[in-house]
Amino acid sequence: MELLANLALGFETAVSPMNLLYCLTGALIGTLIGVLPGIGPVQTIAILLPTTFALPPVSALIMLAGIYYGAQYGGSTTSILVNVPGEASSVVTCLDGHQMARQGRGGTALTIAALGSFVAGCFATVVLALLAVPLAELAFRFGPAEYVSLMLFGLVGSVVLASGSLIKAVGMIVLGLLLGMIGTDVTSGAHRFTFGIPELADGLGFVSLAMGLFGICDIISSLETREARDILKARISGFWLSRKEIRDSAPAVLRGTLVGSLLGILPGGGAILSSFTAYMVEKKCSREPETFGKGNIRGVAGPESANNAAAQTSFVPLLTLGIPPNVVLAMMAGAMMIHGIQPGPRVITSNPSLFWGVIASMWVGNLMLVLLNLPLIGVWVRLLSIPYRLLYPAILVFCCIGLYSVNNNTFDIALTAFCGLFGYVLHKLDCEPAPLILGFVLGPMMEENLRRGMLLSRGDPAIFFTRPLSLLFLALTAGLLIAMALPGIRKRRSRAFEQ
Amino acid sequence: MRRLIGWVLVTAIVGLVGLPASDAQEIKGPIKIIVPYPAGGGSDVVARLIADKLKDALGQTVIVENKAGAGGRIGTEYAKGQPADGSALLVVNPALFVVAPVVFSKLNYDPETDFVPVSVIQTYQFCVSVPAASPIRNVKELIDWVRKNPNQANYGSPAAGSLPHFFGLMIAKAAGVEMVHSSYNGSGPLVTALIGNQIPIGVDAYDAQSAYHPEKIRILATAGAARKRDDIPTFKEQGFPEIEGVGWNAIVAPAKTPKPVVEKLSQAIAKAVQAPDVAEKIRGLGSDPVGSSPEEAAALFKKDRERWVPIIRASGFKAE
Fold it and tell me: What is the ipTM of this complex?
């Protein structure tokens, strides 16, 4: 009953005309920047943060939240149609989504991405409302040992996920781990591989690396081929799903939603990790894993549902504990502080209309996104069917603006250009950048926790095997490795990626 | 004729008295407050609060420029090269002005010669805390526990080389015990670890943890001269007068900024900080609004160097 009263309060706040307007504005801006490769929610929220000063805190947060989940919707459009992830969390959507577009099923892919996101969004809103407090408790069970084991599981899993040569995938992960070591060592505070360049003291910028390896590199490599252009000109039609497609994708949407909801609340998790995990789960569940990477609708439905669910449930740690689980939520925490609200456990009791209003606005925003985006896909697509000679310079300019706005530093732009060239070399060598990015993100966190675990146990590695949750993840990792080593499965894997 | 002479005299006097004075204090806007951290952090929030007030007080556009990177050192170096006419200000803290000169062998700025102090915005206290589930109730019990459990005597700080890191060493030194330091990636992760009972002791700024006391984290003591909160005694009250330490945010200007300009800015900033609505918001962040004169700021910088530098040197901590 209390929940109903709370939700009523939330909806009362969320559907006030002004908040509806800001919700719509946020969702639209989010979709736009999600569609445009290069500019993501982090940069956008950073740019718009000063303008939210004048707004009441609830409206400001509703708009900023709208940008975040709106970007998850928009990001898939670019992934599917141009094979350039609009968002880091849409990287895996490229694998099957773009193949579907090539087969003339682009409309179907877009529809399932939007519907999957909506279902996930609705579910995540309920999760947020029902389980905010108890779910956040779960995250506390994670000490250094649990983190290390979970991340190890994630990294091994990403090898399974990578297409092409196994050796290359492992190589890319290791390279990602090494790149992640650049910067200030969290444990000792020492600078590593910075060559005396102060800009490198914070490590390679994630935005620069991701934008270079995916955005810029893809622009360079598509300049070589002429066919890529025809895809954009091909008409996108057939937005309706066939009954078989619904039957195929429904379970994937549900699984993706669950994976995303769960991983979203873990600190350090969030949309990116969950879309990767959901793809892996889909492939593992499938009776025909070889069709993945060739336009399997589940490869779109799972990850797209997962990233949207995670984008929303990642508000759990922020709104209940004041701990931002990722960069975007860190910006949200900043926005709250600017408005004099200390993010934390007291938000629910001291600002109930804000807490429940933001939650209710997410459901409202998701509804708006589906209603608007399915008809508007035409507009977004037209945005992308601008000739490459106009689109590419525009994307590059947007990338540069976005990059510069992160730190107001030209170094980041130069770094991105370099990463773009490096990405092109990788592309020529048939090395997938996705495992590299995952290694880059997880590596530093894993190292930090590994060393903290060893420090706390005074050098005794037993800590990783004696804690039940940690042991569970290690067992799963071992299982994955054994499965990979079995000749039968290995053969199936290589068949799946044969092209 | 007499009238003319009168006018000439008046003009001359105005010229002599009025113009040079206004010239020297005229600050050519827009004024930018450089924050060497990303938007949304603690120092960014106060900079924006003050910028809003300064706008009206000085009749100039005041903007906040975030120049983040390398723990604030990039923005500080950038501020050093800005015009020294009052149009550029920088928000600094002990990490940049006290710790960095000791731990970096190649630092691209000198806090003493490249900048002049303008005003201290706020001070904040450090505290030591334990998870709510911990049996430890006060500093004395904490030290007994550390003595009895050397293998578990770990304390977490928000970053290696941060003042809380060295504050932990100060506690250990005063009590004559040893504690192993484990750094976290910021205050948030440290709070998570404490709430989840993953680390037995936490040392951080009071405002980073106060929201969780006493339900999830028990703050054992704060490190100021007076109590920060009625139910939390200071170290001094618990028999450790030598354990004292506050952090601060202050505004400085490039070294060659003329003295009258610094004075004028300092007064305007002090007034902005002490304005009831701003002061209230700063208190809401868990810290104490100050709004000092340039001399008081210089004295605080000096006192803190004397307090911390020996501890930092003794720890052997080096960032490179």
Answer: 0.72
